[in-house]
Specification:
The structure is a homotetramer. The first copy, chain A, is mainly α. Helix content of chain A is about 75%, strand content about 0%. Chains in contact: A-B, C-D. The structure holds a DNA duplex.
DNA sequence: TATGAATGAGCCTTCATTCAT
DNA sequence: AATGAATGAAGGCTCATTCAT
């Protein structure tokens, strides 16, 4: 019960810390954990290596912090998504679209997740914030599906967790693997048009599937 | 204009080469490209580093070779999947199941893809074999959907490429991110039961979506 | 000719200075000069690094100051040892015992000396206080031996400086090397009983040797 | 019972290893463990850092190896000291002289011991060779004293271990602290004449003490 | 073909020291 | 007088790669 509260940082220190985190996010997303260079992070951040270690202790702790913040950022945006007042189909479409857009807009987050999974979630498991990483969207989804099933708009045999994973996967795979897919298909999946096409598709897949 | 055909390897040399590739696949999947250790690969393979360099020239060339072989292996199995004689729904279910199972059975392949995408497919783009990496399943899919649409079993407005990506994504994301998902959901997604549940779900999603 | 007399310190500043010196003594004795950490000294002292540098200028100056004070402390205690009124044998025993006990009670002093000798006395030679480090015991010893020789109790062919070094060495080596000796002999030389046994021995050695 | 015997080194590797050990001994003796620089050791040895780590794994392991070898070297010379055939007083004088001369001739050994004691013998305690570090001289000493006591030449109440420590200390302190002593006394203890004077003294002390 | 030994660049981390308030 | 933040140099260690046999 006596969590050593770290003394509040001065504004200057907080700014330095933030700059390091931003630089680290970019570098980690670009090169992974093992491939990232501490020198590069320090240089990009405008700080120096010593500050990096003063704030985070090690490259690995920095990685974990960056990862936690990436999750926190997504959860924060998710909390802004309010679908309670929408009819089920619209609500569902909105959730699906939100996820695709967020994923497409944040390929760094995708890159972090991929890397963390390469490490078998070893860092995430050490995080004290894991519970906070549970997505509010899972509950939204559960609620929307219940409303849809009751009204007869949706089928009633759906496991919300499976659907949540599906919803994420439809966007994540497309973003995460856009480079290999683009190479093999010989067409650029990174354009706005490609995103819109994907968006139409994934909404149709989910709503099509949910028809009773 | 006169591509030096590499002289055929002796049986012994070929075996050494193969052992190195196997060891490299394991090490790369476990630790990524930057995180993999040449020493470890040499040790695992029972060969020594000099052999590794004699055969592959550099760690990066070895990576590319491993990646190409992983694609080739999947394509080879895909070519065995014959759905031409099956009714559309069954054919589709079979394709979906094949992909999920292959993905679940080969997490190393997933890990390789993730890493290669971290590198923005830089190595793949240097490969001379890219065309061979185009999946025969895309054409199978196109064919099955045409048959389904004609018979009225499937809707007719589906882009096969999008569906292909969806089909892959439904399994890939679940496998690729099983460690973070397991951590956050507090349940192990690596069990046989979890795989079966996922399999039922993804087949239902695709077939449900394809209903006219 | 106008040595800047340092302005007298405020009571508070003097206290800070003292705490830093105490912390430095402990840290230096524990880890040597190169192994000691300025951060650690600052933390232990309850002050901060800036104060440390304000008072002492550098780690090396701090080392020298600590060393000078350790010598001064021993010399101060030595000056309290009054043997002029004792018969020669008793006087000698007292000097021998004093040295052993002081050494055993101040292993930090021993550690400092060892370290300083590793540095070939480079810091001590820069000290302005070297003359003050000449032990009053050398003169006591000379006096006692003269009295003993005259009375016929002691042999007359003893070089007081050699005997002084011997007297110190009998205790110093035992204290300085108690860890390696304990390890090799498999018994703890740090106990009170071990000290008493050593005390009996060294007194016997010196008095035995001094018999005419 | 199945100690992984390290594969025998090639002559070249053994030579490299030896050069590293020699360079390390010099550097450690000069600067202590914390003060020693791995770069310097590598440079002095004519090898490079990588080889140092290939052979010894870490600076600390290298330290331990150097320490073990220094002990082994002294024990090897000690084993050559044969006093069984000499009359007790001569035998004892020889042991005392041997120790002083060895110590004076090997100030690096003294420096190593001092450093290791700063570390509270932490490395030595991890050594598998501790038993081999027990000095054969302790037994020689016991034997000589028994002979001397029986013949009436020596007193009979002497603890051999105490005398052993005394014998070592008489030389060790003088060598270990020669820099601070020279500074304080204002005369160089490193000369040949100084050594001879010390030698006469320590032999007299021991033999004088042992008189019945 | 195969191997043990060697290399130099570079990586993560730490240190004594100084700046700005 | 005192402090938190910052710095650059350097330290121990590791890596992919190559040499010599």
């Amino acid at each position: 019960m006596e969590d050593q509260l770290p003394r509040p940082l001065s504004a200057r220190a907080a700014a330095t810390r933030q700059r390091i985190l931003d630089a680290a996010l970019a570098e980690f997303a670009l090169n992974g954990l093992a491939g990232a260079r501490v020198d590069e992070i320090a240089a990009r951040s405008g700080a120096n290596k010593r500050m990096l270690y003063a704030h985070f202790g090690s490259k690995e702790e920095l990685w974990l912090t960056v990862l936690e913040r990436a999750y926190a950022a997504k959860r924060a945006e998710e909390r802004e998504v309010d679908v309670d007042h929408l009819p089920p189909a619209e609500a569902m479409a909105r959730l699906v679209r939100f996820n695709l857009r967020y994923t497409a807009a944040h390929p760094e987050f995708v890159a972090l997740l991929n890397q963390e999974n390469i490490h078998r979630a070893a860092y995430l498991q050490r995080s004290a914030e894991v519970p906070a990483m549970y997505s509010p969207l899972v509950d939204s989804l559960r609620d929307v599906m219940a409303r849809g099933a009751e009204s007869g708009e949706f089928r009633g045999d759906v496991d919300p967790m499976q659907l949540y994973v599906t919803m994420l996967g439809l966007g994540h795979f497309w973003v995460a693997n856009r480079h290999t897919l683009s190479t093999i298909f010989g067409q650029d999946l990174g354009t706005g048009a490609a995103l819109e096409a994907r968006e139409r598709h994934v909404v149709e897949v989910v709503l099509g599937y949910l028809r009773p």
